[in-house]
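Design review, sub-item: ligand-bound model
Attendees: FS, YL, KQ
YL presented the inputs for the IPE complex:
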Amino acid sequence: MSNPNMPRHVAIIMDGNGRWAKKKGKLRTFGHKAGVESVRSSVRFCRKNDIESLTLFAFSSENWLRPAKEVSTLMELFHFVLGSEVKKLHKNDVRLKVVGDKSRFDDKLVRKINEAEALTQNNQSLVLNIAVNYGGKWEIVNTCKQLIQSVQCGELTMQDINEDCFNEFTTLSEQPDVDLLIRTGGDKRISNFLLWHIAYAELYFTETLWPDFNEDAFQLAVDEFCSRQRRYGKIPDHQDDE
Ligand code: IPE
Ligand code: IPE
Ligand code: MG
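KQ shared the predicted structure:
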């Protein structure tokens, strides 16, 4: 890591595709398709800046509540983009990981995910986590279930369970905690994205709609991050008045 002030792990709530399309008089799905270019430029930005992990919220556990047509277009788009982008990601030394509850995906999609993850598993420059059918609450419950299983089969004892151990059982284990969480589209909420991993993340909200989020917009977010003082509950050294 060349610059110690740079975030090691950035997570993004990619919001605003539908509004972007509506503003142009198009269908919402046009916005989702346009958003793929912003994914590419975000990956490019992370590679150029030696960011270790990028976690993108692509589809939440609540997004199933949208009209069936939009849900199926989003799933098809995810399937298609997985196929069309994986070779380029591999060439750029990016490791791809899909995080979320895969039990609702069809077999073909699960196979495609497994192939993409297997192809890129040894890449070192960037981990790209795509959160699909992901919910922060699901992650916590899922992690608890795995911990209980490990205790029941004798791999762990209750005394072994602490924050580090819990973290190891989450979907983003072995990756640094999220340093910077960006949400595009103007809303200021987490929408059940990462809950555990953003405990001490810096939050950055921008009005920019996801399809307009380019490398310059990413740079603005990182500039803001670099200007923040992260205290982790402590007080700055020079303000110690004892
Ligand atoms: C984010 O854009 C993409 C997904 C949630 C899949 P939206 O589809 O939520 O777009 P807006 O927020 O309605 O504009
Ligand atoms: C969050 O956006 C989910 C993704 C970006 C994938 P939403 O548009 O679904 O969130 P809400 O409904 O505004 O909270
Ligand atoms: Mg939205």
